[in-house]
Design goal:
homodimer, Rossmann fold, alpha/beta, 2 domains, 5-stranded parallel beta sheet, 7% strand, 3-stranded antiparallel beta sheet, Amino acid/polyamine transporter I
Chain lengths: 667, 667
C-alpha cells in the first residue's frame, strides 16, 4: 500500500497500539452502561411504535390495551435481567450464552447459540440504524426517499469509529446516551405532571380516526385478535436484545468485572422498563393514533389521509405534545433519539467481534477473525458485521417494520438455551458443593434461572408462532446456514489438526532426503535467469540442471547458442512441448526425477518478476505463477522463487505493508 | 480444475491440437469466402435499411434518391476492393493494415490503425449480432423486448464455437452464407422478372404515408438535407467493413495465399455490390416506406400508426412482396438473413485475435494474447473481443441504429492510413526496382492505391462530420484509449527489456553469493514444520536457523519446550512482536542479516499448506502468503515454499490443469 493510503488509514484509525496496552481499554461502569446498554435503551425509540402499529390493525379500541402489552414486556425484561445477573457471576469470561451453552449442554448447543447471536447482532445493527435513518428523515425532510443510502453511510461511519478501538468509542458514545436518558426522562416527568394537572395537550394525530384491517372486525376479541396482541407483544420484546450484549462483554468491564456487569445489567433493566411504560402510558394519554399503513388506516373527517401524510414516530409526537410551547425541547428529543439509535448499533459492534474471535479461537470460524488488528479491535469481525448489516439494510430498504419481523428470534433462542444451561450448571455444582450457605445461594440462583427459562421459552414460542411467516423464517434460515458453516469449518480444522500432528512417527519425520536435485527454469538468458542460476549454484545441490521448455525451435536454438557462448557451467535441458504448454512438460519431468530417485528432494528455482504496480502483474509472471501453483501439488518438491525487483519497485521495501496483527493462533 | 470441469471443457471445445497440425487449419477459397466475407455480405441486411431510414427524416420524396446513395457506396466499395487487392499481394503476412502502416508510416501510425481496427471489430460483433437479434424478434414475436439478452446469448455461443478453432467454424458457417447468397439472389432475380413483367406487388408498407422531421421541411434540397444525404451515405458505407478482414486473414488461406485472398476479395466486392443495389432498387419498386421513428413518421389515413406498429426490416418486406403466394420462401429469406448476421460477427472473431496476437508479439498488448490456446485458437483474444462486444450490446440495448453511429470510423481511419502507406510502399520500391515490367506494374498499383487513398480519406471526413455528435465521438474516445494503453504497455515492456538485458556486466552476473543463510519459519511443531526443517537441512546451508514470531508468551514457551524435547539440531530464534504482527519482525530480521553480510544469500523456507478446494485457502496460509509477498521485495532473498499437501488434495496431481499453451514469447 502506498504511503498516502497508509497515512489516510492512520488518520482514520489512529496509531497502532502495543499488546501490553490491552489492559488500558477496560471500561468503568459509567462508560460501560452507555456502550453496552444503548441497544436495549434505544429500542424505546421503536418498540412502542411497533406495539401500537401492530395493535392498530384491530382498530382504535385495540390501542387502549397497549400498556398491558407493555407490562408483559416489562415482566419478561425483569425476569431476564434477574437471570442474567446469575450468568455474569458464574461465567465472567465473556463467552456469554455461547460459553454457558457449550459448557453445560455440549458443543452443538453452543454453536446453535452462537449462530443465533451472530445473526441477531447483524439485525441489531440493521434495525437500529434503519430506525435512526427514519428519525433523521422525519427531522430532515430532504433525506426522505434516501433512507437506505443514509443508513448505509451511517454503518460505514460506525465501522470506522469501531476500528479505532473500544475505549474511544465508549467515551464518544457516552454523552449522547446520557442525553437520551435525560430527554426521555424529561418527557416522562413533564408529561406526568401535566397529565396530573390536567394540562397535557392532545397529540398531533389525536384528531384522526383509525380503522383496522377488514379481517379483524371484532377487534382484539376473536382468535385473530388475540393472535395480533401476541404479535404486538413479540415485537415489543425487541426491548430485550441488549441484555446478552452485557453478558458477552464482561471482560471489557473494570474489575470487579462480574459485579460491575451485574450492576450495569440491573441499571439497564430499571431504566428500560421505566422508559417503555412512560411512553406507552403517555401515548394513551395524548391520544396518539399510530397505524401500520397510515395512508389508508388514518381518516381525517372520514377520508383516508393518503400517501402525503407523514406519520411521525411516537416519541416525536409525544415530545411535541408534552413540550407544547417549548419547541426547542421537542427538537432536542428528536435529535437525541435519532443519535442514540445510531449508537445502539455500536453494542453489536462491541459484541460481535468478541464472539467471532472466541468462535475463531475454538475453530468454528476462520482464524483471521481471532486476529487483533490495529488499535486492538477485532478488525475482521467488525468488517464482517458491517458488510452483513449493509446487505440487510439494502435488501429491506431500511424499513424497520419489515426488519423487526426477523429480529428477536435469535436472541430468544440464545436466552432459552442459556437459561437451560444455567439450570444444569447449578444442578451440577450443587452435586459437589458442601457449604450449606453456598448451597442456599446456588438453589436461589437455580430458581431464578428456572423461572427465566420458562419465561424465555414461552416468549420464543410466541415469537416463532406469530412472526414465522412475517419474516422470522429468514432469520432461522440464516441461523441454520451459519450453524452448518461453523460446523463445517470446525470439522475441517479438526481433520487438518489430526493430519498434521506429530504422532508415533515423530522421529521418522526428522529423516532427511538423501540428495538435492535442483532445476532452474529458463526462458531467456537475461539478468533474472543469471541471478536464479547463481543462487542455485550457491546452494550447492548434488545435481543442478537448467531446464527450458521448447515451444519454438528457433527460440531454443538461439538460447542454446547464447548458453554456450556464455560458457555457463550448468547443463541446459530442453523439454519438448508438442501442445505449446509450459506447465505440463515441467511437471512430467519433475515426476520422472522423483520416480527414478524417490528419496531425492527436487528444488525448482523459478525467476520471478517483482513489480511495483498491480497492473504490471498482468503483464508478467502469468506462466511462472501457474507453474508454481501446480508444482506445489507434487510431493517432495520445494519451489524456490528467485525474485527480480523491477525498477518500478524502487522505494518499496516490503516493510510498508500496513496490515498488522496477522497472528494465526492455533496453527 | 476438477475432472468434471475439464470434461465439460473438452465437450465444448474439443480435444487440444498439436502444434504440427497448425498447417491443417488453412482455408480453401470456398470456405474462406464465407468465413471472411460474411461480415461485408451480411451488412446488406442493415445497410440499406439505415440509408432509407436516415433519408426518411427528409420525407417521402427523399427515399427516391436512395439508389443514388447506393451507387456512391458501390463506387467506394469497388475502389477499396481494388486497392486492397494490391495490399494482399504486397503484404501476405496477415498484419494487414497494421503492418502496412507500421512499415511505411512508422509505429505510431501502425498503433493508430490497430486501435481503430480493434474498436471496429468489437463494433462489428455488436452491430451484426444486434441486427440478427432484431430479425429474430421479427420472426419470433416472443423475443420482442428481450433482444439484448438474446443478443448476448448469441455472442456467448459464437465465442464457444470460435474457441473450438478456425476450420471447424468455417465449415459450420459456409452453408448458411451460401444459403444467404442464394436467398438474396432469388429475391433479386424473381423481383426483377416480376418488375419487368409488371406483376411485382406493392410492399406491406407501400400504402402508408411518410412524413419527415419538421426541421427538414425542404426535403433534401437545403443544406440540412444535403447533410442528411451524406449521413445516409456514411451509414451505407457499413457495407465496407468486411474488406480489411480478408487482408488481415491472408495467412489462413490455402496457398497461393495472396492470390486466393485477392480473388476472394474481388468475389466479395462483386456479390456485395449486386446485393445492395438489388435491394435498394426493389425497395423503390415495391414502394417500401421505412422510417427512423415509425410510430410518428408513418401515417395510416393521416393518423400516426403508433407504438404497436412493427416495422419489418427491408429484406423481410421485400421477400414478402416478391414471393407473394410462396410464403415459405419469405420465411426462408428471413431465417437465413437472421442467421448470416449472427455468423457475420464471426469475421471479427477470426480477425481480432490474429491482430491482437500480432500486437502482443510486438509488445503492444499483454503477452497472454500471443498465446495459442486449446484448439490452436487465440483464446485470450476471442474472450476479450466477446467481453467488449457484450458490454457494448448491453450499453446500447442492442439497437442497431444507435450502434451504427459508432461504426465505420475505425475502418476508414485504417483504410486511409493503409492506402497512404501503400502509396509510400510503391514509391520506395520504385526507387530501387530496375526491371521496367515490374516498374509498370508498381506504377499501376500506386495509381490504384492513390485513388483508394483519395476516396477513403473523403469518406472518413464525411463520416466524421455527419456522425460525430451522433455517437462517433464514443468510438474515437475508445480508439484514443486503446492507443494510449498500447503505447503504455509497449513502453513498459521496453523498459523492462532494457533493465533485464545482459550488458557489459554479463561476466559479473555469473558471480555467486559467498554463503547461504537459511531460515525456516516455524509457528507450531507439526509435520509441515518438520518437513521444512528436513528439506532445509538437506540443502546444507552455511547457516541454518528456525525462526518464530513471539506474539503470545505462553505459545512461545510451549514451542521452546517441544523443540528441546524433540532434540532438533537447529537453533530456534524467537523474534519479538509488540504489535502482534508476523510480517514486519521477519522482514526486519532478514534485513539485519543482509546488512551484516551483504554478500550472503538468505533463503527463507516457508511451510505452506496445499489445499484441494478454493474455500480451504480462506482457512489457511493467510499469514504465509502475505509474508511471502513482502519478502520478495527484499534483494538477495530466495523464498522457498515447502508444500504440505493436505488430504483434500488427494487425486490431484498438478497435471490436470487444463489451461494449455502458456508460452511467454518475448520474455
Amino acid at each position: 500500500m502506498s504511503d498516502l493510503a497508509d497515512a489516510a488509514k492512520r488518520l482514520l484509525l489512529g496509531r497502532p497500539v502495543r499488546s501490553d496496552r490491552l489492559g488500558h481499554t477496560l471500561l468503568p461502569k459509567r462508560i460501560a452502561l452507555p456502550v453496552f446498554a444503548s441497544d436495549a435503551l434505544s429500542s424505546v425509540a421503536y418498540a412502542p411504535d411497533e406495539i401500537l402499529l401492530t395493535l392498530s390493525l384491530a382498530g382504535l379500541t385495540a390501542l387502549t390495551i397497549s400498556p398491558w402489552v407493555g407490562m408483559a414486556v416489562v415482566l419478561v425484561m425483569l425476569t431476564v435481567v434477574a437471570s442474567y445477573r446469575q450468568n455474569v457471576h458464574a461465567y465472567p469470561s465473556g463467552g456469554g450464552d455461547y460459553e454457558v451453552a457449550t459448557v453445560n449442554l455440549g458443543p452443538n448447543a453452543g454453536v446453535t447459540v452462537a449462530s443465533a447471536l451472530l445473526v441477531d447482532y447483524v439485525l441489531t445493527v440493521a434495525v437500529s440504524i434503519s430506525s435512526g435513518a427514519q428519525y433523521a428523515a422525519t427531522a430532515l425532510p430532504a433525506l426522505r426517499g434516501h433512507e437506505t443510502a443514509f443508513a448505509i453511510g451511517l454503518v460505514v461511519l460506525l465501522t470506522l469509529a469501531n476500528l479505532r478501538g473500544v475505549k474511544e468509542s465508549g467515551s464518544a458514545f457516552a454523552i449522547p446516551v446520557y442525553l437520551f436518558m435525560f430527554a426521555i426522562g424529561a418527557v416522562a416527568v413533564v408529561g406526568a405532571i401535566r397529565y396530573a394537572t390536567g394540562t397535557l395537550p392532545a397529540a398531533e394525530s389525536a384528531g384522526l380516526d383509525l380503522v383496522g384491517e377488514g379481517s379483524l372486525e371484532n377487534g382484539i376479541a376473536g382468535i385473530a385478535g388475540g393472535f395480533l396482541v401476541l404479535r404486538a407483544f413479540a415485537s415489543g420484546c425487541a426491548a430485550l436484545t441488549g441484555v446478552e450484549a452485557i453478558s458477552n462483554g464482561v471482560p471489557a468491564f473494570e474489575k470487579p468485572k462480574s459485579k460491575n456487569a451485574a450492576t450495569t445489567l440491573a441499571l439497564l433493566g430499571g431504566i428500560s422498563v421505566a422508559m417503555i411504560m412512560s411512553i406507552l402510558l403517555l401515548a394513551g394519554a395524548t391520544g396518539i393514533r399510530f397505524a401500520e399503513d397510515p395512508a389508508v388506516q388514518l381518516l381525517d373527517g372520514g377520508v383516508p389521509v393518503g400517501e402525503e401524510y407523514v406519520q411521525h414516530p411516537v416519541i416525536s409526537q409525544l415530545s411535541a405534545a408534552v413540550f407544547q410551547g417549548l419547541p426547542f425541547m421537542a427538537v432536542l428529543v428528536a435529535v437525541v433519539t435519532g443519535l442514540i439509535l445510531v449508537l445502539a448499533a455500536n453494542t453489536a459492534f462491541n459484541g460481535f467481534p468478541v464472539l467471532g474471535s472466541i468462535l475463531a479461537r475454538d475453530g468454528y470460524l476462520p482464524r483471521q477473525l481471532h486476529t487483533r488488528g490495529d488499535r486492538l479491535a477485532f478488525s475482521n469481525g467488525i468488517i464482517t458485521l458491517a458488510a452483513a448489516a449493509i446487505a440487510l439494510i439494502w435488501a429491506f430498504d431500511a424499513q424497520v417494520t419489515r426488519l423487526i419481523q426477523l429480529y428477536i428470534v435469535g436472541v430468544f433462542v440464545s436466552f432459552t438455551l442459556s437459561q437451560l444451561g444455567m439450570v444444569r450448571h447449578w444442578t451440577r455444582h450443587l452435586a459437589t458443593e458442601p457449604d450449606p450457605k453456598a448451597r442456599i445461594a446456588m438453589k436461589r440462583s437455580r430458581v431464578i434461572n428456572t423461572i427465566g427459562l420458562a419465561m424465555t421459552a414461552t416468549v420464543l414460542i410466541i415469537v416463532l408462532i406469530t412472526k414465522f411467516t412475517h419474516g422470522a423464517y429468514i432469520a432461522i434460515i440464516a441461523m441454520v446456514a451459519v450453524f452448518v458453516l461453523m460446523k463445517g469449518i470446525h470439522g475441517h480444522y479438526e481433520r487438518v489438526r489430526a493430519e498434521l500432528a506429530l504422532g508415533a512417527d515423530a522421529e521418522q519425520a526428522k529423516a532427511l532426503p538423501s540428495r538435492v536435485h535442483a532445476l532452474v527454469l529458463v526462458s531467456h538468458l537475461h539478468r533474472p535467469t543469471m541471478r536464479a542460476l547463481a543462487y542455485a549454484r550457491a546452494s550447492r545441490p548434488h545435481e543442478l540442471e537448467a531446464v527450458t521448455v521448447g515451444v519454438d525451435a528457433d527460440d531454443v536454438e538461439r538460447l542454446r547458442a547464447q548458453w554456450e557462448e556464455m560458457g555457463l557451467p550448468v547443463p541446459l535441458k530442453v523439454l519438448d512441448s508438442p501442445f505449446r504448454e509450459i506447465t505440463r512438460p515441467v511437471l512430467t519431468y519433475v515426476r520422472s526425477i522423483r520416480r527414478d530417485s524417490p528419496r531425492d528432494l527436487v528444488v525448482v528455482y523459478i525467476p520471478e518478476y517483482v513489480v511495483g504496480h498491480w497492473w504490471e502483474q498482468l503483464l508478467h509472471n502469468q506462466s511462472a505463477l501457474r507453474l508454481k501453483g501446480r508444482l506445489l501439488f507434487t510431493p517432495g518438491v520445494v519451489v524456490a522463487s528467485v525474485p527480480w525487483q523491477l525498477a518500478s519497485t524502487e522505494g518499496q521495501t516490503g516493510l510498508e505493508d500496513p496490515v498488522r496483527g496477522t497472528v494465526p493462533r492455533g496453527y
